[in-house]
Amino acid sequence: MSKPLGIFDSFNNLDKIKPEDIASWLTPAPPPLYLENYLANKLLYPQSVPVSELDLKIELAILREALKINSAQSFNKSNPFLSESPFINFNLKKILIPGHFLDFVPDLQILVWVFIDGLLLERKREKDFEDIWTVIITGDLDDVVGTIILPRLKSAAGEIQLDLLGKTYTLKLGSLTVVPCLKKKCQLLFKSNESLLLGKNDLLIEVYGGKLGIVVDGRV
Amino acid sequence: MKLTVNKRLRLEKDVIARVPRLLRGEGKIFVSVGTEVSPGDIIGTATQFTGFRIINLSSLLSVRPSEVIKYIKREVGQKIYKGELLAFKKGQFFSPDKIITAPTDGVVDFVNSLSGEVRISLLPKTINLAAGVYGVVEKVDSKSNLCLIRAQVTRIYGMFGIGKTREGTLAILTKRDGVITKDMISPQYDEYILAGGSLFSKEVLHSAISAGINGIIVGGINADDYKVMMGGSLTLQHKLDEDIGLSLVVCEGFGVIAVGDDIGNILKEYNERFVLVDGNNASISLPSFSSSSMIKVRSSGLPPVGENLTPDGQQEEAQLVEGVRVRIIGSSFTGEQGKIIATDKTESLMPSQIRSTMVTVETNRRKIQTSFKNVEIIQ
């Protein structure tokens, strides 16, 4: 019989997470003592699942911090295109989400949001080629589910216009938006005066779509 | 649908095991391999020369550290014997007199007016090591003064702990869901193993070490207190030689969690009996106090000394079926135990928006419905 796996079985350094860092993702934040005990019990019982809404929020905050401390850029020495992190491949610009995570956080959009917060949010947006990341659900068969777009912002306010599958979406800077695109490959037209994508403010590109679609993270 | 969950070994009743008896100090073990012993038999004698005890009089007398000197009844440098008056504070209107006696023979050699502690250097004393158990001597190591006795024990496996193996008389201090406080720790429990309570804190740890307590068995501990004991990390598996001055076994987890029914009921049977606590392995050995256990001890053998006798990995997987005893491990109702009385046929949506097969657990007090992933089978 296979052992029931939890999200936190994938991490062996949860004890390095600080309660105040977990609290930073929660409003209102429970007392640090409560969060520290919650985290410590996750080390003992990683397979347990959150029952209440608050439990889920705490676990997602722990997951964000767990991803953050495991996101240090590391390359496989024998093959630079392989990453040593199971969650991110810096060279190929892929976000890798283990399939069993969806058993615990069934909402893919929320899960991807957590991965962006944990892995990409604090990265400096300096290089053009780090603007687009492919999202893959890993398992027996890898499944490409969509794309994350991280435009480089020139100002805190403004808009992005996306033309996709014959529809026009106007997105405000400062927000994270998911635009549906179930097709395998999606052609989109990006236009913005206050942000750049791949160094351009007017660009037609083709990106991966899927059950997630296209996530545009315009947060400052 | 088959539901697979963890199965945890928490209790092994009446198993044959080796009980280590260590003679501390310079001395000799008298018994030889094959000797049958009973709990009161002296199996070795030693003389202990070094060591000291620190007693926090400020806390025991409820006075400021700088005032402790006023209440001490012995001069620095004077001898004092176990049970003699060390400090006295006359009671006020609603508080009784406070009488503090020496927990051990020694010399009062230092009073710290900043911390309110008094240090007693131990006098050389003769230690008679009792067998503590009904059993048969299996091995005597004269170099380390260690004697292994084959005996019938009941073993408890906690979740985690710290400290080398220590022994003592078990005293249950509180109800399973009570809290062990500093006031409960007194020198009368010198060399005792204290049990009970749903929470143990580092403040109580300091008092317990001062009072000469050998071990603590508790349901829960706050993670930040455990970190302090572990030198700043939450490491649950650690080196076998780590020690903090006593042995601590935490039976349930982090936070305020009552000792489970299974462990609590067994500990009650052993109140005021000889027990051994191994914090680093999170195990408690309760030697049989019945002479009839010798029948089983005589007829049972054990693998050669040196082979691991602790079950490898106290967790395995098993199928969850109605009727099995489980323990709840989720963030709600943590540590409660009961029987599975129903398993849903379909998945339900929990308030966390996660779908899971729900099970109903009947405890002594109530019925609890939770995800099957939040229970583990116990044995």
Structure description:
The complex is a heterodimer of chains A (220) and B (379). Helix content of chain A is 24%, strand content 31%. By secondary structure, chain A is an alpha+beta fold. Chain A has two domains: 70 residues, no CATH class; 132 residues, no CATH class. Chain A has an eight-stranded mixed β-sheet, covered by helices on one side. In chain A, helix 3 runs parallel beside helix 5. The radius of gyration of chain A is 18 Å and the shape is globular. Chain B has 379 residues and is mainly β. Among the domains of chain B are: 74 residues, OB fold (Dihydrolipoamide Acetyltransferase, E2P); 123 residues, Ribonuclease E inhibitor RraA/RraA-like (Glucose Oxidase, domain 1, 3-Layer(bba) Sandwich); 59 residues, SH3 type barrels (Roll), CATH 2.30.30. The radius of gyration of chain B is 23 Å and the shape is globular. Classes of the chains: A alpha+beta (220), B mainly beta (379). The interface between A and B is medium-sized, with 31 and 36 residues.
Sum this structure up briefly.
In chain A, 24% of the residues lie in helices and 31% in strands.
**CATH level-four homologous superfamily name of the domain at 159-281 in chain B:** Ribonuclease E inhibitor RraA/RraA-like
Q: Count up the helices of chain A.
A: 5
- pLDDT under 50 segments of chain A (min length 5)? none
N-to-C span of chain A: 47 Å
Question: Termini distance of chain B?
Answer: 23 Å
Q: Tell me about the largest β-sheet of chain A.
A: 8 strands, mixed
Strand numbers in spatial order across the main sheet of chain A:
1-2-3-4-10-8-6-7
- Regarding quaternary structure, what we see is heterodimer
- What share of the residues of chain B does DSSP label as strand, in percent? 35-45%
Q: Give the radius of gyration of chain A.
A: 18 Å
Rg of chain B, rounded, reads 23 Å
Structural class given helices, strands, pairing of chain B? mainly beta
How many domain regions of chain A? 2
Query: In what range is the share of β-strand residues of chain A?
Result: 25-35%
CATH architecture verdict of the domain at 159-281 in chain B: 3-Layer(bba) Sandwich
H/E element string of chain A?
HHHEEHHEEEEEEEE
CA-based shape of chain B: globular
The count of DSSP E runs of length 2 or more, i.e. the number of strands of chain B, is 27
